[in-house]
Every structure is written in C-alpha cells, then in structure tokens.
C-alpha cells in the first residue's frame, strides 16, 4: 500500500511541476507581453477598410484575420484530430482566403468568434493536467502539444504585427 501512495505522490508532483509552464504557455498564446493582443489588433477596424490591401502589401485585414483563424484551427485539428483523423491542408491555397473582402456583413465578427473559441479550446488542452506536453503525437513527425502551442503563439504574433503594420499604412491604428 505504501508503494502505491508514493507513486501517486510522485505523479501529483510531476503534474504540479508543469502547472507554471502551462500557465506561461496560455499567457504566451494570449499575447500582450512582447506584442499586441489579438483584441487590440482587431479593435475598431472600420468595416470599409477590412477588405483593403494597401499598395505594396499582399493581403487585406480580412485575409490576415481569416488566415489566423484557418491556421489556428488547422493546428488545433492536428493536436486533437477530429473523428476520422487529421486531414492535411494544401499550402498556401487552403490557408488564405481568395477574396480580400469579407463574404457578408457578419463574416468579420464570425471569424473573430471562431478564433476566440478555438483559442479557448486549445488553452483547455494546455491546462489539462493529464495532457502530456512533451509526448509526440502518434501522427505527424514528432510534433507534440508544447510545439503546437509555441507554433500558434509564434504564428499569431507574426501576423498580428503584420495587421498592425497594415493598419498604420491605412491610417487606422491609434495605439
């Protein structure tokens, strides 16, 4: 009986030892330390400017927002494949919307809501004390939950910076 209790105590200490790392990963995903937050980057983008790509830039604010949504969803699907398994997407065609303009009056808000929902889902994966951050997925090429969290954070930071640059060129950044 004593041996079983010791294993439980050791297991509990291991889980508790990862709690600070899990919390730091969530903070990294939310941004705001070394870069702007998602909410700040998308705040008050005038509807008439969402589909404008300034001269010299390849994408509009809408395309960047949708790219963030699509890529984050793909990483979530890779981390926890839906029933039927993970289906890889084709780069770059599947990751970028063709149209620079949102497809309808509610598309902008729907994309934002989907990004937030998927981020919450991913954060719950990270914060789950039973989730092994280091264990390679059975699919893929050695990726694990830690790597996917860092990938989302890195990818989002890059494109949020791109969005701020675009907004500055359009004269709609007031921070």
UniProtKB/TrEMBL annotation:
InterPro entries: DinB-like, DinB/YfiT-like. This is DinB-like domain-containing protein. Pfam families: DinB_2. Gene3D superfamilies: dinb family like domain (1.20.120.450). Signal peptide: none annotated. Residues 38-162 form the DinB-like domain.
């Amino acid at each position: 009986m004593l041996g079983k209790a010791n294993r439980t105590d050791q297991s509990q200490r291991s889980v508790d030892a990862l709690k600070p790392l899990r919390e730091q990963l969530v903070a990294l995903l939310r941004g705001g330390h070394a870069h702007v937050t998602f909410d700040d980057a998308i705040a008050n983008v005038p509807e008439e400017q969402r589909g404008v790509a300034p001269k010299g830039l390849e994408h509009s604010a809408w395309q960047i927002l949708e790219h963030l949504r699509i890529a984050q969803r793909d990483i979530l699907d890779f981390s926890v494949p839906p029933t039927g398994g993970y289906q890889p997407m084709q780069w770059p065609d599947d990751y970028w919307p063709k149209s620079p303009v949102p497809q309808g009056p509610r598309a902008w808000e729907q994309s934002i809501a989907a990004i937030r929902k998927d981020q919450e889902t991913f954060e719950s994966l990270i914060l789950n004390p039973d989730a092994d951050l280091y264990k390679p997925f059975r699919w893929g090429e050695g990726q694990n939950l830690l790597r996917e969290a860092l990938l989302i954070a890195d990818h989002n930071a890059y494109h949020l910076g791109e969005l701020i640059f675009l907004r500055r060129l359009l004269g709609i950044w007031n921070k």
